[in-house]
Amino acid sequence: MGLSQSVEDYLKAIYILQTEGETATTTNIANALDVSSASVTNMLKKLAKMNLLKYQSYKGATLTNAGKKIALEVLRHHRLLELYLKDVMGYSWDEVHDEAENLEHHISEQFEDRIAELLNHPTHDPHGDPIPTKDGVVPEMAKLSITKAEKNIRYVVGRVKDQDPEKLRYLEQIGIIPGVKVEILDKAPFNGPVKIMLEGESEQVVGYSVASDVYLLDVS
C-alpha cells in the first residue's frame, strides 16, 4: 500500500503515545505532530476508513494490527537511521532525530537491510529506544524513570525520552547517557530535584522535569 508521509507520521505518533502509556487523544496527537486539532480529527476519520486504526470521538485512537505494522516499520527506519548517522557518519546524539525524520519515509527495504547488517543488527538507537525487528518484534524498553526509582539500588540508564537537542546536550555534558550506571542517593519531595551517583563516583543533582525523561534498567 502506497501511503503518504503524513499518514505514516500519524501512525508512528499514535504508536509512540501508546507505548509511553498515554492515550492517543486528538489533543495529544496534535501536540506530538504540531498540527491543529481539526486536522487530527479529519486524518483520524480517514485512517479509520482505511482500517489502520479505530477512532471514537473523545476517546482517542487505537491502532489496528495493520496500522501497528506500518508504524513499526517507520520506527525501524527512523531508529536505524539515527544509529547510522551517529555511529557511521559522526553526528552527535542531539542531531540525529531531525535528520532521521527527513529520511525515514524515503529509504528502500534493501537500504534498510544494508544499514542493519552494517550495524550488526542493533536492538536500540542512540537514545535507548528499541529498534523493531523486520518481523515487528520490539526489544525491551526501559520504563522506570529516575523520579520513580528506589534509592540505593544499582541501575543503568536505558533510555532518554525527550528529543530536545538542548536537553540531550545537557545530559551528555553531565554524563547521563544510555549504558551509564547510576544510583539514586536522594529525592526531594514535591517534585524536587534528584541527587544521583554516576559510575566513577560522580554526583549530580538533576531537576525533576529532566529526571522524569531518563529511564532506567535494574541491574542489581
Structure in words:
With 220 residues, this protein is of the alpha+beta class. It contains eight helices and eight strands. The strands form two sheets. Strands 3-8-4-5-6-7 form a six-stranded antiparallel beta sheet. A two-stranded antiparallel sheet has the order 1-2.
Element layout with pairings:
Layout: H1 5-19, H2 26-33, H3 37-49, E1 53-56, E2 60-63, H4 65-87, H5 96-103, H6 109-118, E3 144-145, E4 154-160, H7 165-174, E5 181-187, E6 194-198, E7 202-206, H8 208-211, E8 214-218
Helix pairs in contact: 1-2, 1-4, 2-3, 4-5
Shape: globular
Largest sheet: spatial strand order: 3-8-4-5-6-7
- H/E series: HHHEEHHHEEHEEEHE
Mean pLDDT: 95
| Distance linking N and C termini | 46 Å
Q: Level of helix content?
A: 40-55%
How many strand segments? 8
Portion in beta strands: 15-25%
| Structural class determined from secondary elements | alpha+beta
Low-confidence stretches: none
Alpha carbon gyration radius: 18 Å
- The helix count comes to 8
Largest sheet: 6 strands, antiparallel
Short description:
This protein has helices spanning about 5-20, 25-35, 35-50, 65-85, 95-105, 110-120, 165-175, 210; strands at about 55, 60-65, 145, 155-160, 180-185, 195-200, 200-205, 215-220. With about 220 residues, it is an alpha+beta fold. Strand 5 (about 180-185) and strand 6 (about 195-200) form a beta hairpin.
